[in-house]
């Protein structure tokens, strides 16, 4: 019953314009018949009824509709209705033309207001479906979207990892303009593409399925190409996830992005530009298998450390080492840390891993000390380690097994834990600092904390993330930010190190900007313990 009724409503909505025109004409004709044959005395008094269809048609059909109905009603209620049939007295021509003019005016006015109303309504409607800043479609729009049933579509998730930094560095306008440009370019690639912005730094694309490889190439090209906004080159750090769905059934469209989101996140974690969800079930399995093998690998020699030197930018001599974990898997060969650390961090094994890394680094330090080389070695501490209550005491127990001074140990931590749990982090860091350990903030600038915020923690070194290094030569704003960071950090008494230097120009520039030390492939890639000891001996 209800279904029947709603079908009727749908039908009426669909043909509402034709229905309005038919209703208005019929109303005018019926009114004519009433005036002509039923009314006894002042027939023209009934002509006022004509305003109902005139205004109605004006509002729904616009000024043209109002005009036509005004003329029709004016003529029908004019020469065709005599004042009296016996004797036949016609209306005075000027009277009915005057009335018709008023009717036309009423129709036109109603039409103008009707149009204004429709336009405002559309604007309000658009506002509900689009972000007011980027003007891209939002999640409401997605909910109202319908796709052609039983067709295949490609769903793409785009994560813009440094969206916030772009806003801070280049300004919100540049960021939103970039997003709009991407939309424009995507539409000129395929006009059926839909771009939705579910979150500020996240985009979703729906595209009728075509050649996937071509789509990937084209979208990467568009994201890269669009990054020049009024002569300013933006550095956009994006990762894409793709998934294809056959025979899309019209349920909640957002669900189709679950897989592309996973793929994009995985791509982001692995520092890839994109990933396709297909490869995925096998990948998940892989990480599960890896985790089961990890525990054993910690003790059988397949997990070990490489060391990357840090250099003093003035003297160009090594000033320290960073220990970086490596996994030489028996069948899968080298597995990079970003491929397993985030999985290990989800388990308790992360505590054992950090302790092993600490043992190995102390062992290397001891060997260096015995050969007369004394340089701090830093190890990476996982955020999760701070949530182990016995973390400090376990680390101290290990330190005591080796005859190494704490001042030669540096702990690299990221801002995350300090932001999440400042009180606890401060207490733990103070315990280490009091023993003489050095504390470094790793990947600084990638997160959201500021130097002012970090000042409450006992910190010695700020390591500026390599995301800045990558754009410093081409982006003057980045240069200013890095310079300001270096100056402020120095004023606060921190040593400043910059990560990821890959060429001489960047190294020279950073030296000029006042940066004290640096790390990067330009100076040296991570090397095995044996190689690094041999290398350092020449500086003894
Ligand atoms: P990270 O702490 O930021 O380490 C620096 C990473 O940058 C290393 O990658 C290093 O090889 C790489 N790198 C150094 N110079 C350059 C350069 O000039 N260009 C480029 N493109 N990369 C450069 P790696 O060894 O793959 O480590 C990746 C991440 O894994 C590390 O990032 C760190 O977060 C984590 N990690 C590594 N070892 C450990 C560990 O023992 N414990 C924990 N918790 N995390 C670790
Ligand atoms: Ca590090
Ligand atoms: Ca780092």
Largest sheet: 8 strands, mixed, barrel
Q: For the record, give the distance between the C-alpha atoms at the N and C termini, rounded to a whole number.
A: 92 Å
The average pLDDT score comes to 91
Overall shape: elongated
Rg value: 37 Å
Determine the CATH superfamily of the largest domain: EAL domain
* Strand order in the largest sheet: 8-9-11-12-13-14-15-16
Could you name the ranges where pLDDT drops below 50 across 5 or more consecutive residues?
Answer: none
Supply the helix-strand structural class: alpha/beta
Distinct bound molecules: ligand C2E, calcium ion
- What is the CATH topology of the largest domain? TIM Barrel
Q: Please indicate the percent range of residues in DSSP E strands (runs of 2 or more).
A: 15-25%
Q: What is the oligomer described by this structure? A: single chain
- CATH class of the largest domain equals Alpha Beta
Name given to the CATH architecture of the largest domain:
Alpha-Beta Barrel
> Please, how many helices?
21
Number of strands: 17
**Number of self-contained structural domains:** 3
Estimated helix fraction: 40-55%
Observed structural traits:
single chain, 540 residues, alpha/beta, Alpha-Beta Plaits, TIM Barrel, eight-stranded mixed beta barrel, five-stranded mixed sheet, elongated, binds ligand C2E, binds calcium ion
């Amino acid at each position: 019953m209800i279904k029947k009724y709603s079908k009727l409503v749908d039908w009426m909505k669909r043909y509402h314009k034709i229905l309005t025109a038919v209703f208005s004409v019929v109303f005018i004709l019926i009114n004519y018949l009433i005036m002509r044959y039923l009314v006894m005395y002042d027939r023209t008094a009934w002509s006022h009824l004509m305003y109902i269809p005139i205004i109605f048609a004006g509002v729904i059909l616009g000024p043209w509709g109002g005009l036509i109905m005004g003329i029709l009603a004016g003529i029908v209620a004019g020469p065709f209705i005599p004042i009296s049939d016996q004797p036949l007295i016609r209306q005075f021509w000027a009277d009915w033309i005057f009335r018709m003019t008023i009717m036309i005016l009423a129709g036109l006015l109603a039409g103008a207001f009707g149009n204004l109303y429709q336009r405002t309504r559309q604007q309000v409607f658009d506002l509900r479906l689009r972000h007011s800043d980027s003007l891209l479609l939002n999640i409401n729009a997605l909910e109202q979207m319908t796709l052609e049933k039983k067709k295949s579509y490609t769903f793409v998730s785009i994560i813009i990892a440094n969206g916030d930094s772009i806003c801070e560095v280049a300004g919100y306008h540049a960021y939103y303009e970039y997003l709009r440009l991407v939309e424009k370019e995507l539409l000129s690639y395929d006009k059926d593409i839909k771009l939705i912005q579910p979150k500020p730094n996240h985009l979703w694309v729906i595209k009728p399925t075509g050649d996937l490889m071509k789509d990937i190439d084209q979208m990467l090209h568009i994201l890269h190409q669009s990054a020049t906004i009024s002569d300013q080159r933006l550095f956009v750090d994006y990762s894409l996830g793709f998934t294809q769905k056959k025979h899309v059934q019209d349920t909640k469209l957002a669900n189709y992005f679950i897989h592309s989101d996973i793929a994009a996140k995985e791509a982001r974690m692995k520092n890839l530009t994109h990933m396709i969800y297909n490869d995925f079930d096998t990948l998940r399995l892989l990480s599960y298998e890896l985790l089961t093998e990890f525990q054993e690998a910690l003790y059988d020699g397949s997990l070990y450390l490489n060391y990357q030197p840090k250099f003093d930018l003035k003297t160009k001599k090594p000033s320290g080492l960073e220990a970086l974990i490596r996994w030489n898997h028996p069948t899968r060969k080298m597995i990079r840390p970003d491929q397993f650390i985030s999985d290990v961090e989800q388990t308790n094994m992360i505590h054992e891993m950090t302790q092993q890394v600490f043992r190995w680094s102390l062992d290397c330090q001891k060997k260096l000390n015995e050969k007369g080389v004394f340089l701090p070695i830093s190890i990476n501490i996982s955020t999760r380690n701070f949530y182990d209550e016995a973390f400090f005491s376990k680390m101290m127990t290990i330190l005591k097994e080796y005859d190494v001074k704490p001042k030669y140990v540096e702990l690299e931590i990221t801002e995350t834990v300090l932001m999440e749990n400042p009180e606890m982090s401060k207490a733990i860091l103070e315990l280490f600092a009091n023993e003489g350990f050095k504390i470094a903030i790793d990947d600084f600038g990638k997160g959201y904390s500021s130097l002012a915020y970090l000042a409450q923690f006992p910190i010695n070194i700020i390591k500026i993330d390599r995301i800045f290094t990558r754009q410093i030569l081409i982006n003057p704003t980045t240069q200013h930010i890095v310079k300001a960071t270096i100056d402020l950090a120095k004023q606060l008494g921190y040593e400043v190190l910059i990560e990821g230097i890959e060429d001489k120009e960047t190294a020279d520039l950073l030296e000029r900007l006042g940066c004290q030390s640096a790390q990067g492939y330009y100076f040296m890639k991570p090397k095995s313990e044996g190689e690094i000891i041999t290398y350092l001996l020449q500086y003894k």
